[in-house]
Write a structure and sequence with these properties.
It is built from three helices and 13 strands. The protein has about 220 residues and is mainly beta. It has one domain: Galactose-binding domain-like (Jelly Rolls).
Length: about 220
Amino acid sequence: MMKKTVVTLMLLMSSICVQAQTFPGTGGGALPDGTGVPTTCGSPGAAVDVTFDVTGVTAPLTAVELDIDITHTWVNDIVATLIAPSGETHVLFGQTHALTADGCGTSIGGDADLGGVYNFTDAAMGVDWWTAAATAGAAANIPLGDYRTTEQGGDGQVNPAPATDITAAFAAVADPNGTWILRVTDGGVGDNGTVDAANLFLMGSGPSDIIFENGFEAIPVL
């Protein structure tokens, strides 16, 4: 009897195993130029927002990932930020290879290009974002694939900028349901790009009282 009950419990627990959910984004388009010149980033142009309508996710979040299909001919112009419904924000990447407040990619790496789908995940194991940009160099795309999110470039930043944790940034979000925003801005002139698509991947926590919601008598006895 006990063995059958334990097996039943295991089957019930596996049936409520939490799965990651994918939320396709809505929006995107051409990135308006900012006021900066090729050596100095200025005020960004109008933001391009991609929105995600999140439902059915239980806090706390245990995994957050985002992929973005983006093209641009000067990565350092770009700042990409994820915003939760409650207002928490986290930079995916921004002012790549800038070591001054208004740096705009005059060093090798800041002038690399974006050209396809980049996935930002804490599980990325490869080369960091800044090193990948430097390896690509001028007028070549940063290789597509998985990357950790990275601190924004700016005054006093080190090279390469430290990796950050996207999941930890949103772990305290009390209710992950609602509208999430991927906000992308361009701080320079003379280079163009578009945000073509994005997908948000969230994993919440499992229901805390499914098996025993009606008391211990809810366990089937076989």
